[in-house]
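User: What would this chain look like folded?
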Amino acid sequence: MYLKRFVELFIAYGVSFLIAIWVIGYPFNFYHLGLIILGVIIGYIILVIPLTLLTIKKMATRENASGVNKNKSKFSKVLNELPAFIYLATKNNDGTISNSIITYSQSSKQENIFYVVTSANSERVNNINYNSQVAIASLFNNKTGLRFSSNQATAESITNQDQIESLTNKVPQIKELDENLTDKAIIVITIKSVVIESFRERPENITFK
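Assistant: Here's the prediction, encoded as structure tokens.
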């Protein structure tokens, strides 16, 4: 969670704590104020610790979601060396390009297919429904500069719950991205070709059949 979320959670927790005291009729005076503040802080810490651990675990699961393809090709090896985050560029109906960073999972059967879970009402879903042509780029390795990118990719958004259930049954690792798929969309990205670059080697173009 971001710092903003911790602050918002603290305010909400503090207000609920004070409301609970008011409801049960706790005799309030300035002596009790210190105890109340201490109680809010202790209770907040107890609340936040498991939430933080769960958030870290979820992020670790997401980061390890890519590179599941058993293919020993160079592209799959590159994926295994990079975090499971990519930039996804989509275009709306007036030609405006929207770029966002997302977590993905690679298909275990086809190395050039990525799965993304997002809100069904997100801008990227609306853009993909209008224009299936997308571009992607990975984060890069700080030491070697290893990265990949492609402007030769298409995407399809799946929002029908029956289709989502059918797809997740076939591709169970999608649930590692988000266990709750209610009101969500699954974006299926198909890469036609990709460029692999680094500080050490010349750019290499890989075309998928």
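The first strand starts at residue 85 and ends at 91. If you want, I can go into more detail on any region.
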